[in-house]
Amino acid sequence: MILRITNKCTMGCSHCFIDNASPTGSHMDESTFIECLCFAKKCQAKSLIISGGEPFEHPKLFDFLRLAMNAGFPAIIVATNGTFASNENLYNQATNPEFNNVMFQVTNDSRFYPQNVNSIKSKFEGKKWFFIQRIQKIHRCNRTEKNKIITDPPTSTCCNIRSIFNEVKKLDVAIQILENVLQKFCKPSINTDGSIAVGEKDTCFKIGHVSDDIERIEAMLHAMQCDNCNISIQESRRYHAK
Ligand code: SF4
Ligand code: SF4
Q1: Which pTM was predicted?
Q2: CB within 8 A of 168, min separation 6: which ones?
Q3: Distance from the CA of 65 to the center of ligand 2, in angstroms?
Q4: Structural domain of residue 220, as residue ranges?
């Protein structure tokens, strides 16, 4: 499950999924974050990806990580562009042994990220870091279309969860299959206001709010018709079947 704790980011990447990621982006508040943790527990999610925007822009990132650790999630991953490591205070907090069980995934592909972190790459050595220097898959979204970036594969990011949910009819079972069988940890995606989307883009259809009953969310997921990606579920499934 992705928790987008902020829309703030100063990077302005041409390939960003989040069209409203900007230097003035808003933050998730603490009560919404706690509701997210309760929702993730109800869905029996094991993995949380703390994302944004740039999560290190959130003034309560480390408080949120403590809340998630105390709630007992086995895997907590922070997805960052890595620029925080130039800030000694933030870097020292991230490397504090208190956060030894949190993984920091640093993605900074110089084809798309205007500010690269190559000069501080040595800061990301060791088992708590996962450094991605070349993105393998870029999905079609607002910015990639506007910036004419070639996307691959031709699939919508909601395909797996929608297909599996339509088979099993239960959100918790679908999430367990995604995590345990397909090793996919990024669905659903929760926005800064607590709204729930089945894909990771701003344009994704919202199936409810983390404070809603699971049955209501499941009914919305069952009824959803979104094809804003202009890629049919059948076309996406054909890709995933390869
Ligand atoms: S660093 Fe991440 S959130 Fe910020 S613009 Fe780039 S892809 Fe988007
Ligand atoms: S925009 Fe619609 S079709 Fe595309 S990934 Fe999101 S929910 Fe799926």
Answers
A1: 0.91
A2: 174, 177
A3: 28
A4: 2-241
